[in-house]
Amino acid sequence: MQRGRRHFIRGVAGSMLAIPFLPSLSRTARADEASPKRFVSIRSLYGQPEQLFYPGRPSNEVGDHVRHQTFAAGDVISPILGETFAPVAHKLSILRGVGLCSGDHNNHTMLAPGPRPEGQPPRTRTSMDELLAQSSLYDSPPPHRILRAQVRTGHGYSWRDGQRQPYDSVVALYRRLFPSSDVEDDATPRDLQAQRALNLALPGVERVRDGRQIGRADRERLSNYLQMLSDAERRLEARRQRLLACSDPGLSGTVAAGPGNHERHADRYHLYLEWKNAAYDTLAELTVAALACDMTRVVSISASDFGSRHGENGSTFHQPSHWTYQHRDPSDPGGDSIAFVRGSDEEARVLRMYRFVAGKVGRLMSLMDSVVDADGSTLLDGSLVYFGNELSGAAGHHDYSMPIVVAGTAGGRIQPGYWDFTFSGYARRARNRFFSAVGTQVYANFLVTLMHALGLPREEWESVQGGAGFGQIRVSNRFRFGGPSGDWSFEEIYGDDVTGDAARRRTIPHWFTDGSTG
Amino acid sequence: MSRLTTLLAWSLVACHGNVEAAPPFEIVTPPVPDAAPSLCDPADRGRSHRDSRRLTRREFERTLTALFGPSLEDEVSRAMPLFPEEAFDVPEVPKDFLPESLPRAVSEAHVDAMIQASTDLARRAAADPEFLAQYGCPMPLERACVATLLRNFTARAHRRPTDEAELERRLRAWDETGDLASLLQATLLSPRFAMLLEDGGEADGERVRLSDFEVAVRISYAAVEGPPDDLLWSAAELGELQTVEQVRAHVERLLESEAGRARVRRFFRSWMEIDPTSRAAVSDAFRGETDSARLYEDALADFDRFVDYVVWELEGTVDDLFTDRTVFPSSAELAELYGVVGSDGEPQFASTPHQGILLRAATLIGGLNDSPIILRGVFLRRRILCDTLGAADFDGNTPSEDDPAFLDRSVHPNRDVVAYRTRDEACMRCHAFINPLGFALEAFDSLGRFRTEDRVFDAEDLPSAAHPIETRAEALAIEDGARDEVDSAGELVEALLESDKLRECAGRTLLRFHAMREDGPDDVCLLEEQSALARSATVRELLVHGIANEDIFWRNL
After folding, report:
1. Of A39, A69, A269, A485, which is most buried by a Cβ count within 10 Å?
2. Contact A156/A308 with Cβ under 8 angstroms?
3. For B94-150, what is each residue's pLDDT tens digit?
4. A217/B50 touch (CB, cutoff 8 Å), yes or no
5. SS3 for B467?
6. pTM for the full model?
C-alpha cells in the first residue's frame, strides 16, 4: 500500500506529539544501540548577506577572538535564519569567523562540489562527501553511499554498486529510493499494538511492585522488570518513528508533473514557485526517509537556486545576489552596494530568495529532529547538517569569514550555539566594505572538526588532499586587511604556524567538545 | 563445572591444588533421623521460599500452549526460538549446581522475547474464533463479552482471580481503541505472567500461608512445568487445597500424566548429569569400533524407559532404582553392551554387571577414550553423596615433575596413570576421596561397556596394548561406619545404598530440582521426611512427597 504524502508528514512531524511522552524516552540509550552518524551538506551557490544572516554579536567572550551565545528552542535567529529554524535553534551552531578555503565558490567546494561547467576539466580533489562515502562512517555498505541532488535542475546521482548512477529529476530519485512503493510493511501496526500493550502493562507492574506483600528481593526484581519494559517501549517508539520516516513519503503531484519551463515565463511564475516549493519539500522528505532507513548516511544538496526569472537579474541565485549587493551603486560601480540597496525593493526581492532557501533548509532540519533514532535521540542529534557556502558575503567573491550553520551535534561531539571567531580589531577599523569581518579560524580546521565529530580516524582523511590533512589553506594575493594604521599581516590574525600540517589538523577550539587534535 | 570440564580440571593437568587456601571439598553429614534427634521445627516449614522466580523456557512454552489452546499451538512453537536457552540446557555452562544456574530474575532477553512473541500471539488470538470462544467471547466482540474474555484470560495468564479494578482499566482502553490484541498482550507482559509471584495469602507469624491459587501454581509447575489444569483450578476456586492430602491427590494425578512422567524422567537425567549435548564427543571414542552416537541415543531411551519402569510399573524403591538389572535395548549395539540378544525395546535382564540408573549405559558413557576415573569419582561425590566439592585451585603449589615413563599408557593402565598424576600430598587431600570411587567403576569403559581389559590404542587408532582391569577400591570414605572397601562396581552400589547419604541426597536433589534453588536450613523438615521415605517407600511416593508436603502452603514473610 502506498502511503500518502500526508501520511508521511503526519508520521514524521506529528507523531512525537500524537504519542504520549513517556519517561522512558528520556532515559539513557543503551550503548549497544548507538545510532549511526550521518552527514548532510546543503550548499547555497553564493555567500550570505551577513547583516541579515547573523544575529548581533555574542557578548560572552570565552577566549581570544572567541565569543559565544546559546540559543533556546523557539528562538528566531535572524531575518534569514527565520521561523523554520526556531524549533531546532538550540541544536544549531552558527559559526562566524571561519575563512580561508581552498575551494572555488562556484564549482569546487571542499564539502560537496557542484557540477562542473561544460568544458572545464574534471575535478581532481576528493570532496568531503566522497571521502565520507568511502570511510568507516559505513560499517556495512548501504544501498547508496551518497545521495547528491541539485534542486535547480533536479539532477543528481546516487553512488551505489560501486559507481555513480545519475538521475535527472526528483521524480527519478523518488523512484530509485522507493521502487516498490506498493509493499506494505506491517511492522508499524505491530509496534503500535505492542506500545499500547506496554502502556497498559507498565502501571500494572508498578502496582504489583508496590504491593504490601512483596518482599525486598522481589521488589527489586520487579523494579528491574519495570525498567526493562520501559526501555523496550522506548526502543519500540524509536523503531516506529524510524519506520514511519522510512516509509514511502509519496510524491507531490506538482513535482510528478515536472518542472516545465515556468521560470522563463513571467506570467506563469506562480506555477514555477509552486513547483519549486514542492520540489524542495519532496527532496527534504526523501532525504529524511533515506537517512532514517539507512539507505544512505551522506547527502549533498546543492540549493543553489531560487529560480529567478528574466527581469529579476538573471537565472541563478548567484546573479541576483551578486548584482544586487555589488555594482548597483552608480557612484562606485565596482564596489559593494550593500548600503545603497538597503531597504529597497531589490533587496527585499533578494532577501525573499535567501529566506526561501534557508526556510527549506530549516524545515529539513526540523524534519530530521522529529524522527527518533535507534538510541532514543533524534535523527538530527546524531547527525551533522551543514548549510552554507565556501564564500563569505552576498556581494564580493571572498572567503574571509564564511557563513556556516551546522545543525545537530553528531551525538554531542560539538557544542551548539553562536560562535564568533572574528578578529576583534577588524570590524572597528574596516575600510573594505566587501567584508565586515575576518575570521581567526581556518576552514581546514572546520572540516577536520567535522571529521572528528563524525568519528573518522585520522588516517582516513589526512592522506587525501596532498597528505596535509583534509583541506588546504589558500592565501590569496588579495589578502590584505586594511586599517587606519595599515594592514594586518596574515600571521597577526591567524598565527604564524597556520599553514603547517599540524595546524591544519586542529579542531576548532571550544566548538569541538572532545578536544582531540587527531 | 560440567563433567567434561571437571575432567579437564582434575585429570588432564597435573594436580597441584591449593588445598590450604580453600579446602576443595568436605563431606557433608546430613541429619539422619534414626541416628539423631530430629532438627525439624514445624514453625519454620516453608520459610525457605523467600522470593519468586521467573518461568523457565520450558515453562514459558507449556504455559503459552495451555493459555492459547490447540488452535494456536503452532504459533507458540514458532515463538519459542525467541526465548533464550536456559543455562542448564547449554553444554558449556556448569551443571554441578543446577539450581544456582537458573537466574531467578527476568532478563532483558526474556523481555524482548516476550514482547515479540506476545505481539504475534495476541494478534492471532484476537482474530481466532476458537480462542475467543475458549474464553467465553465468541464473535462479535462487544463490551460485556470482552469483559468476560479478559476476566477469564487474565485469570489463567496470571494464575489467580482477576482483579476487577485492573479489568475495568483494561476495558476503558478497549472503549478507546477497540484493540483486543493489545489488551491480551498487556496481560502477557505483566510480571504475573512471567514470574511465579507469591504475594497473596495471610501472614502467620514469620510466615505467610499461601492462597489456594498460589498453592495450585506450586503444584502444577513442580509436577508438570505448566499452569494449573481445570481440575486443579477448580480445586483452588473451591478452597480444596487446604491439606496435604488434598494436594497429594492432584500431585499424584499430575505426575502420572505424560507431562508429569516426562518431568520425572528429566529429574533423573538431571540427577545423573545426563546431558545428551555435552556427550556428543562419544562419537569420537573408540573410533570405528561402534556407532557410538547411535549407541548413546539408544542408551538415553533405555534410561528413560528404566525410570518409567521403576517408578510407575514396578513401583520400586530407591534400592530398586539402583540395583534392578532390567534393561530396554532398542539397538544391536546396546543389546551387545548389556549382553542380551533382543533389541526391540522390550525388558530384558542384563547379563553384564550393569544395574540401576548408576551402572547404566547412559550414565556411564563419558565421551573420552580413557575411562573417566576422576570424572566419575567427582560425580559420585557430588551427585550421589551430595558432598560439597569446591573447584580445583592450582595456584600456589608446585606439582612434582611427571616422569613420562609413568604416563606411557602402553605400559601402565589408566588407573595407575591417574594414581601417579595425583600422587602429590596436596593432590591427595582431594583425590584420596575421589579416585577410589572412580576406581570401583573401572570395569566399565568410557562407552559404558563392561570390560576385563584396559585397552590402549596407538596413533593409528589400532589396539596396541591391554592391561588387566583392577576394580578393587579402598578407603571409600562414604561416611562413618559405612563399608570402606569394595571389589566391584556392584559392591560399590551396595555400599552406597547401605549409607544414609545416598538416600538423603536423593531427597535433597529432588528438593533442589523442584524449588530450583539450593536447600537451606529451613528445609530440614522436608529433608528428614524425604530421607525416611527413601529408605522404605517407593520412588513414586518420594517424588509425590517432594511436592505434596506441608512446606507447599508456606513462604517466608
Report:
1. A39
2. no
3. 444 444 445 678 888 889 899 999 999 999 999 999 999 999 988 777 889 999 999
4. yes
5. strand
6. 0.65
